[in-house]
Design a protein that fits this description.
Blueprint lengths: L3 H4 L8 H13 L3 H25 L9 H24 L9 H40 L5 H7 L34 H28 L19 H17 L4 H16 L6 H47 L1
Helix pairs in contact: 2-7, 3-4, 3-7, 4-7, 4-10, 5-6, 5-7, 5-10, 7-8, 9-10
Keywords: Coiled coil
Amino acid sequence: MWTERHGSQKFGRLPHKLRLKLDHFRQQNPILESESAAIEAFHGDVSDGLRQLLLDSGSGSEMISLLWFKLCLKHLDSVNRAFIKLVEEIDYPMGKWEAAVVHEYLYYSSNLLNRLNLISSWISHLGSARLSLSHALSLVASSKSMAIEKLKPIYPKNQRDYGPKAQRDFGDRKEEDSEQSISHGKGEVILGAIMIMKAVTSSICGTLLFGLTRDAEPHFDLEKSTAGFLDSWIVYFDLRIREEFIKRGSVLKEVKEVNDAVDNLVAASDHGDISNEIAEMETKLKELQHLLEGVEEGVNGLFLEILGRRDELLDCLRPQNQ
């Protein structure tokens, strides 16, 4: 169980690979002291958010819930905003980015958008299943037997149901592809921040995807190219989630509650009055609807934010290509 005692521990320094690169540039550029302080603050914000997510997960059972998923999406949004703040603080706008930084951000944002699309698809699937159950419940008054026949538990889809494209993750690209040369310390700072974002996003999106599918294996695969940019707390966060999901399975808390209500109603249908079971199921379906809408709102908001930043970067590149 993650406790406040664990949460009170201090987060480590910057990941070693990024720290070494910044030390190298610091020897040649003393101005980088302010820039390194800015990325230290960025790293601290990211790490503090991960710690809070673990604290909010409670005993672990809450981790596999739509309510906690909303918090995960909120943290991803916070990471994105912290990155924007970092770019502004070191005065390194997108129009000045070197090619390696541009390529890395485009790669990162493209994969994140793909992941968000997948999450949105699975949320839509759960929403459709909820609607089917609501319709079946509405038939009880006119034809209880028909309603009972249509009351089926919600089963998440497998990842493979969405085709080969759904198998993509942040680990598709070879490690050397991210090792392009950087000639400016500010570029190293931003590139390092992108690597940290990739690691955190990979872990959190893996959590969401695993919780929304019924695949036997989790989606937690931190990209190899980010290995030198991981600190012990990002790794711990990833392992902690992996352990909980493997131990408890990938059935969402709210989906399990709806399925339990379905089973109770079906079991009680042969014993007279089922008004209590109907009321309970209606309550659980409304709760599921509310949380699905919240998660969908978080996914859509983050998608539009990332897409907007990506378009902004592409706009900066267009004059150079004309």
